[in-house]
UniProtKB/TrEMBL annotation:
Example GO molecular function: racemase and epimerase activity, acting on carbohydrates and derivatives
Domain of life, per lineage: Bacteria
InterPro entries with a match to the protein in the record: Dimeric_a/b-barrel (IPR011008), Rham/fucose_mutarotase (IPR008000)
PANTHER family cross-referenced by the UniProt entry: L-RHAMNOSE MUTAROTASE
Protein name listed in UniProt: L-rhamnose mutarotase
């Protein structure tokens, strides 16, 4: 079964070019970890100061896979690099960096 996830975060206007550069040149080990954690069709879109992410999770233990990713040293270094480019939304839930979005429509 595939579960879809969408989330949103603001990007600092003066850091948008840096954010785009690093994602155009993402580290191979980071991409490999994303795939190892059963994430596919991962995309990030930009509009009016906001980044929107979408991905599909194909595993059966999301929390364990997200912990695996968070425990990965290379991934943590990547997050340390790109997090300063972002500004979390005030409306996000406690514990979120990217704010989860509610899916309101999907066409199969």
């Amino acid at each position: 079964m595939v579960k879809r996830y969408g989330s949103v975060i603001a990007v600092k206007p003066d850091k948008l070019d840096d954010y785009k550069y690093h994602h155009a040149n993402a580290w191979e080990k980071v991409n490999d970890m994303i795939k190892a954690c059963k994430i596919q069709n991962y995309s990030i879109y930009y509009h009016d100061g906001l980044l929107f992410s979408y991905f599909e999770y194909t595993g059966d233990d999301y929390d364990a896979d997200m912990k695996k990713m968070a425990d990965d040293e290379t991934t943590r270094k990547w997050w340390d690099l790109v997090k300063p480019f972002q500004t979390p939304l005030d409306s996000r839930k406690e514990g979120e960096w990217w704010a989860d979005m509610e899916e309101v429509y999907h066409l199969d």
